[in-house]
């Protein structure tokens, strides 16, 4: 897995960046030609940096004008001193120290602008063996994430503040748009994203902590495709509640933090997870946040029921519908495993 660290430096690279921009623009203008370092040698940038820029910008078939460019240093042109925690780039005559752990395998890439150095490192992917999976249901109202463990029956809810914070900013933006305050509206949008990013980061940390401490994997609903969160969703009042960006951001953050701690993550199709009973697997009735099964009589919070279904859909889960009430099996599977799922009626007859 590749992970990037952002490090502030205090070196002026204006001259190098101007040369890099000239090379990038030349490559964009002449992308149909076979461009080599000899074509841009007169600009005066180091060969390693110039070749990397040509490689990056030649792949872009739609860009017409280069506005900003970073110096791109491949891993082979980087000298690493793990004992001193120092990274040296001879082609720039530049070195800096890092504070992140030495657990990475190698430095893959370094990108530099006038403020920051972005160090991409390759981390080992050592996933632990888990005994069961925690299902995570994502919601547009109420708690944004509900975690449920089919093995223990325990439930945890997170992110109740996120929908309220989202609506608060949206209401203020509506007043700004009415006053035609475009700059203020854009500034508020950036502020909203930062606030929601901090909140989703906190939720992701708590979920990964639970999975790590209980030796469980994390099973998430796939955001996109047939997901129930593809677009902006409206609540009962007709106002937009949450949109897919928040769910995508939360799922991505959970996946990243889980991989850093060796916790496996799986994605399943969320189709019908909110409609089927997590105890018997039959279709039930849902009214707002209440779920009731007419077959077995199970009554549950709708989001909790969906979270249990998501956790049960992973084929490697030790828990099953048989352990929760009626029959063995699952009604779905992670996309990457290419397992055909049984329907609820087929499970009942099995």
Can you put this structure into words, describing what you see?
The protein is an alpha+beta fold and 350 residues long. The protein folds into 2 domains: 2-122, no CATH class; 132-165 and 201-349, YqgF/RNase H-like domain (Nucleotidyltransferase, domain 5, 2-Layer Sandwich), CATH 3.30.420.140. The protein has helices at 14-29, 37-40, 47-58, 161-178, 182-213, 244-260, 302-312, 321-324, 344-349; strands at 2-8, 71-74, 79-81, 86-89, 94-97, 106-112, 116-122, 132-138, 145-148, 155-158, 216-221, 265-268, 285-287, 290-292, 299-301. Strands 10-9-8-11-12 form a 5-stranded mixed β-sheet. The protein has a 4-stranded antiparallel β-sheet with strand order 1-7-6-2. A hairpin with a 6-residue loop joins strand 9 (145-148) and strand 10 (155-158). The protein starts with a strand and ends with a helix.
Q: Residue ranges: pLDDT <50 for 5 or more in a row? A: 225-240, 325-350
Helix content: 25-40%
The total domain count is: 2
Structural class, from secondary structure content?
Answer: alpha+beta
In spatial order, strands of the major sheet run 10-9-8-11-12
Q: What's the helix-strand series?
A: EHHHEEEEEEEEEHHEHEEEEHHH
- Please tell me the overall pLDDT: 82
CATH class of the largest domain: Alpha Beta
For the biggest sheet, the summary is: 5 strands, mixed
Distance between the termini: 41 Å
Shape: elongated
Radius of gyration: 25 Å
- Fraction in beta strands: 15-25%
CATH superfamily of the largest domain: YqgF/RNase H-like domain
Q: Helical segment tally?
A: 9
Number of strands: 15
CATH fold assignment of the largest domain: Nucleotidyltransferase, domain 5
The CATH architecture of the largest domain would be 2-Layer Sandwich
């Amino acid at each position: 897995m590749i992970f990037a660290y952002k490090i502030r430096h205090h070196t002026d690279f204006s001259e190098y960046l101007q040369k890099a921009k000239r090379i990038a623009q030349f490559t964009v203008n002449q992308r149909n030609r076979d461009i080599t370092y000899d074509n841009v040698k007169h600009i005066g940038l180091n060969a390693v940096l110039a070749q990397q820029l040509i490689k990056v910008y030649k792949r872009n078939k739609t860009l017409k004008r280069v506005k900003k460019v970073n110096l791109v240093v491949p891993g082979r042109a980087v000298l690493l001193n793990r004992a001193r925690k120092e990274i040296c780039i001879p082609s720039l005559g530049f070195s800096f120290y890092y504070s992140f752990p030495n657990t990475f395998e190698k430095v893959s890439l370094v990108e530099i602008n006038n403020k920051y150095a972005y160090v991409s490192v390759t981390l080992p992917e050592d996933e632990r063996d888990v005994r069961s999976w925690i299902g995570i249901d994502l919601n547009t109202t109420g708690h944004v994430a509900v975690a449920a463990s089919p093995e223990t029956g325990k439930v945890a809810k997170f992110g109740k503040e996120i929908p309220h914070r989202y609506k608060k900013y949206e209401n203020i933006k509506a007043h700004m748009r009415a006053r035609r305050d475009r700059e203020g509206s854009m500034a508020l949008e950036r502020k909203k994203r930062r606030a929601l990013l901090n909140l989703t980061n906190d939720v992701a940390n708590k979920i990964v902590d639970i999975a790590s401490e209980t030796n469980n994997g994390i099973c998430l609903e796939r955001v996109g495709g047939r997901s129930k969160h593809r677009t902006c969703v409206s609540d009962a009042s007709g106002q937009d509640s949450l949109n897919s960006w928040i769910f995508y951001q939360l799922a991505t953050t959970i996946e990243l933090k889980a991989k850093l701690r060796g916790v496996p993550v799986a994605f399943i199709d969320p189709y019908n997870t909110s409609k089927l009973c997590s105890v018997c697997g039959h279709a039930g009735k849902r009214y707002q946040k209440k779920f009731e099964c007419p077959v077995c009589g199970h009554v549950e919070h709708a989001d909790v029921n969906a979270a249990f279904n998501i956790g049960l859909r992973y084929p490697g889960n030790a828990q099953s519908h048989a352990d929760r009430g009626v029959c063995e099996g699952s009604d779905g599977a992670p996309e990457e495993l290419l397992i055909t799922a049984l329907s609820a009626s087929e499970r009942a007859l099995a």
